[in-house]
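cron nightly-structures :: item 1 of 1
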Amino acid sequence: MKNKNKQKDLEIIIVNYNSQFWLKKTLSTLQEFYLNKTKKKIDVTVVDNNSTDDSMKMVLREFKWVNPIKLQENFGFAIANNTALKTSTAKYIMLLNSDVEFTSNSNLDILLDFLDKKTKVGVITPRIEFTNKDLDPACHRGEPTIWASFTYMFGIEKIFPKTKLFAQYHQTYKNLDSIHTIDACSGAAMIIRGKLLSKIGLLDERFFMYAEDLDWCKRVREAGYLVVYNPDVKVIHHKNKSGIKSTSQQIARKTRKHFYDTMLQYYDKHYKDAYPSFIRSIIKYILVIKKGAL
């Protein structure tokens, strides 16, 4: 269990929901490629959203160094992470998906040392890649303004990926091989300064899943800190193994609904008062069409 009397350099929080196979890969590769090599003091916490696939039995049996937290129902990504965030005393805290794989290029010490030197950086993300080495665009995002969201949802960003005017949603006009600031990254693998929690708060629990990372990064920027993308560190994301691409069609339908519902929730929180009400009606209509097309 956590030693509250000695601050850890990093606490890694992993939320799990019926992803036993991928969680085992995450923990195994995390141990092999990072924990066994670093000299920093690390805590690893797995928060389980009431899985039914014996995920936590596997964790308790094979990864005794993990701090397990078992919830009594599936509360979603934000609440599950917040359960661990509320008690964390680590200098830095990492949110990590249960379908992320570490490799020899996944030395998190590089990111922690960067944060030590750059005190105005509040959040940092590695380069998150798919298995084919393509960038997971969710780790490199701009603020989802109405214009940015429009160009993304209607495919204009794909046509002009290097043009700043049309590629704001994923900021693909920037050099993806260099370290630079972005507006937001993905909760699949992001590190935040522990001290920021008292300034910006925890993840917003109105978001069951999706957008809580966008919202957190926005609050980090509004507090005067930077969000940085650092491709010197890479992890592999086996995307949505308990979400949209789940083999369970029931789970897949639910997560598709959450994705589009969350987009409207984000608009309501940050943009609703800045625009006439008919703008929201148009956005809602588009999202209903998008949900039906999936």
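cron nightly-structures :: done
The CA atoms of residues 156 and 166 lie 6 Å apart.
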